[in-house]
Amino acid sequence: MGRSTHCSCSICDIESCIRSELGTPDNHRVYLEIVGENPVFAAFPTAFHLLATVHGSKDLQDGAAFSDLIFAQLLQGGSTVSHWSYIEKLLILFFIPSIHSAIRHVSHHYPFLPREDLSQYALMSLLQYLRSATWQSRRSHFGFVVAQELRRSLFRWARGEFESTSQFAAQKLRERLSVAQTAEESFERHAILRHFLRFCEQHAYLTPEELNLLIDIKIDQSIEACGSGSNGRISNSCRQKLKRLMRKLRRVAQKRGNNQDKRAMAGVCRAGASAKRFHAPDKKNKKTAFSRDTFSKFRAN
């Protein structure tokens, strides 16, 4: 708990009303009856002195232990049942700073929620928890548990309010449409690619060996599918073979002038581009070797 926050919100209005009510002579006599049954409160002439001391004990080394003692005496004293209405109002004043803190945190994450609604739900949650047997039967950490439960309950409610808004529904709809569209485009690309390769094979633009080479590269995700030299590097003949194959397929797609064939050719190029990078050739063979940069530029075209 912290010190009271002064503002014009509904929580502060409620605090002002409770203070005015507890300051009446009748309620002061109730406080004196509680003090008579609990000598711990004898050092505090009025309930407001007790309240100020508890709020001020936050920064003290034994502040938590002191507030636990006060709460335990209020909740487990002989006058708890007979004076519960008074004690409940006093407890609300104790936790006003906790309510302010929880509302500030939730409002920062959910700024679209009206502060008035947050204040009403926070006060309702606090009253429910103060009246619970679980909290009243505690022996320690009264303030810490209330602050934690209050914040958790308020965040849960705010999340539910957000999920019921059109903004959340639009966000979910965009996510589902994006996933469906991606799957549909992927299926369409594969269908066009299979149709284009089948056309090339039927019209003898592709030999069975070349078709198998493309399949191996796609499956292995590596250009090593077309073979390697004795030193473990990719042979120049293999690079040239792949280069000629790509050129031939590109010419077929351009000759047909079909947009789908061009998209299919783009899929073939992506399949080749997904291959693992191969070893660079020796510097001695730089003139005859098909360099890595040249091959990358070729596949990009």
List the helices and strands and how they pair.
Layout (H helix, E strand, L loop, with lengths): L9 H13 L2 H13 L9 H10 L6 H14 L7 H11 L1 H14 L5 H16 L2 H4 L5 H22 L2 H37 L5 H13 L15 H21 L2 H15 L18 H9 L1
Structural commentary:
- With 301 residues, the chain is mainly alpha-helical.
- It folds into two domains: 10-163, no CATH class; 174-300, no CATH class.
- It has 14 helices and no strands.
- Helix 1 packs across helix 5 (84-94).
- The longest helix is centred in the middle third of the chain and has 37 residues, at 166-202.
- The two termini are 66 Å apart.
Low-confidence stretches: 1-5, 274-301
Average residue-wise pLDDT: 75
Number of helices: 14
Structural class: mainly alpha
Order of helices and strands: HHHHHHHHHHHHHH
Count of domains: 2
- Extended strand count: 0
* Cα Rg: 38 Å
Backbone shape: rod-shaped
Residue share in β-strands: under 5%
Indicate the percent of residues in helices: over 70%
Instruction: Tell me about the largest β-sheet.
Output: none
**Distance between the ends:** 66 Å
Oligomer: single chain
Give a brief rundown of this model.
It is built from 14 helices and no strands. The chain is an all-alpha fold and 301 residues long. The protein has 2 domains: 10-163, no CATH class; 174-300, no CATH class.
